[in-house]
Amino acid sequence: MSWLYLILAGGFEVVGVSGINKVNRERNWQAFLYLLGGFGLSFLFLSLAMNSIPMGTAYAVWTGIGTVGSALVGMLIYGEPRSVLRIVFIAMVLSAAVGLKLIS
């Protein structure tokens, strides 16, 4: 169950980062609520995951999911560049997170 919490935490981290972009574009209370809700739920699920996953592993996987997810959202939704090197480095971050899961 802790790994599910950690995946949810990473997903909500992506929501929070998207909320930052939304606040920069719209500056209304709904955008701030989106941002705060995303990060709030992210930290909640991260803390639940850390009840049984070591802190270093949980934090590394959480930031990896947030990094990869935010980069993908940026490319797919916000029109950020989709270079081959960018995708290679995203794959490297993802493989590092999977590696941490496998050794934990």
Structure description:
This protein has one domain. 85% of the residues lie in helices and 0% in strands. It has helices at residues 2-26, 29-49, 55-76, 84-103. It is mostly helical and 104 residues long. The chain is flat.
Share of helical residues: over 70%
Radius of gyration: 14 Å
Tell me the strand percentage band.
under 5%
| Inertia-based shape | flat
Nearest-integer average pLDDT: 93
Report how far apart the termini are: 14 Å
- Domain count, please report it: 1
Model regions low in confidence, pLDDT < 50 over at least 5 residues: none
Largest sheet at a glance? none
Could you tell me the number of beta strands? 0
Name the helix and strand elements from N-terminus to C-terminus, one letter apiece: HHHH
Determine the number of helices (DSSP H or I, runs of at least 4 residues): 4
Give the helix/strand layout.
Blueprint lengths: L1 H25 L2 H21 L5 H22 L7 H20 L1
Question: Could you list some keywords that capture this structure?
Answer:
104 residues; mainly alpha; 85% helix; 0% strand
